[in-house]
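Throughout this chapter, every protein is written as a compact record of paired, labelled lines. An example of such a record is reproduced below:
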Amino acid sequence: MAQAVEGLRSAHWVIDDRLLATARPTDAEMRRLAELGITTIVALLETPPDATAALRHGLRYIHLPYEDMTAPSTELIREFVGLVDEAFARGDRVAVHCMAGLGRTGTLVACYLVHTGMAPAEAVSYVRSRRPGAIQTRAQEHAVHGWAATR
């Protein structure tokens, strides 16, 4: 299991120093994310969150609507993968969150790993090793495998 990131309630690097999976950050934790060099935050929530704290710390805040405990659509996965690729191309470090940082976050992070060439079962296992409890439903796990089939 990966060590939790100091100063955050529940956060783990999935790709070291580049892609962080976390629970929804508090206002105070936004500062810590900026200190870690995070420059882009992707929020996977049903409704748009208040981005005031993120913006105050110079963070780019992107909201992708995603219903809790469901599997993402292929379109949502494609949009997420594109956003992360663009952020990495700029040299950004990215934090991804939903509420607990497990289901929606784990699923899309695993899909990103599949995009980079990892096998779907390996991606699911790897994300769970880094972020225990991640990818909460069978439908979410199937979405990772389904995404691989579109590659």
